[in-house]
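DM from R.C. (forwarded with permission)

"hey, sorry to bug you on a friday — could you get me a structure for this? deadline for the figure draft is monday and I only need the backbone to look sensible"
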Amino acid sequence: MATVSAISSPSQDSKSKEATSFQKDAENGAQEGETTSNPILAENDTDMEDNSNVPKMSLLKLFWFVFYNFGLFAWGGPVAQIALIKERLVIQDKWITLARFQRVFAVYQILPGPEAAELCMFFGCLSAGRLGGVIAGIAFMLPGFVLMLLASYLYSLAGLENKYFNASFRALQPIVAAMILKATHKIADHSVISHTTKKIDAFLIIAAICTAINGALHINIFISLGLYGIWYMLIFRRLFIPAAILFILQYVGFALYVVYRGFPSPVSLALGIAPTPTLPNLFVLGLVAGSLSFGGAYTAIPFIQVEAVLKGRWLSQNVFIDCIAIGNVLPAPLVIFATFVGFQGGLVGSGLGNAFAGAVVITLGMWFPCFLFTVMGHSLLEKLVRNKLLASFFDGLCGAVVGVIAIIAAQILKSSVEGSPRNDELGGLNSAALSRISHTGSAAVIYVVSLGVLYKFTNKFTPLLLLVSGAVAGQMIFV
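My reply, with the result:
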């Protein structure tokens, strides 16, 4: 194995110790990986832990490097963000080999949090130790956070009664619904593929479909995710009888609940951790949602939606859809939509200062799992991935997540097409009915057209252009 270069300097002893520790962890993980047959990881590659091309950077220089090269240009969603990082640091600057990059990326695909941010943290750790990883992560997310904070403030200033403001967002809502449905399809493409066979697994498809059914039955999200994670573990170990018993028991338990307690209400989907948008509640909401963001923000959207919109009722469905639309426009991972949710929650019954505080605390909660899992040591994460039992649990969980997102996509589609009546639609009965029918039909057309555009044109800027076009079209359709 190639000798691992130390990333240190005499003037930065403490920081260099962290960098060296991080690299030693990676080296130990690679040595163990050479005796493992997991197909996710490359084997017997002498360049897997060679850091000789990684430049030594001060924390300030590292912050500016990530901020300027990646944070400011994080347009186009996760695919474009990851491609940008790969092109600059792997292809162009050759910090690490392509094989090592693919192994690192395979690990982060299984963990919660946006992969682009996690990759920036990984490279930050290589360059300046664990503290460098934290700095790199902050530099990547900071532009999007500041812009979302500004957008949240401007949104509150515009007011929900402004007809021009409402017209643009009325047109954006069906576009967002189309984006979520397209994301469901995209996430399903890799979530129903087994990491061991690299083929579509019928059992993962069953997990996705049954989780969607459970959502329609108002069975709590966490019950479905945990159950199908364990269920697929049993399937993976060919314990078909216990798996069948577990599968049947979920519906036996549901039937008993209906008999003795009645059919679950929609709020039973939630844990009830944020009944009111206090600062501690907002932090916990972000923390739990961030821990569930396997594969990106679209897996965190359902959880925040049921807690803030359905259970807490301190955020309307339309405002929630608006925040996703804004998140898609900004140069940041979509999980930044939580900043908007925290701002709007802080405004409920409190002043502007509490709104900014709410935006900060929910963002801290949302990003904390991402920072924790990445910076605490990449080698430990690789060991977890090499554990076939845990890998199968995550496979089952990711399959179930597709069903959760599908249900939310259907709910958001219904809300975005139907909309909510504006003040000018609450006049005479006949005129109000005609206005509602006209607006619903227009929203349905926008949804169908948007879905067709998203499938026809796969350029990274298509969603951004679609949202801008929708905002302009809304002024002509809904004013």
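R.C.: lifesaver. Residues 115-158 form the longest helix (44 residues).
me: no worries. The chain has 18 helices and no strands.
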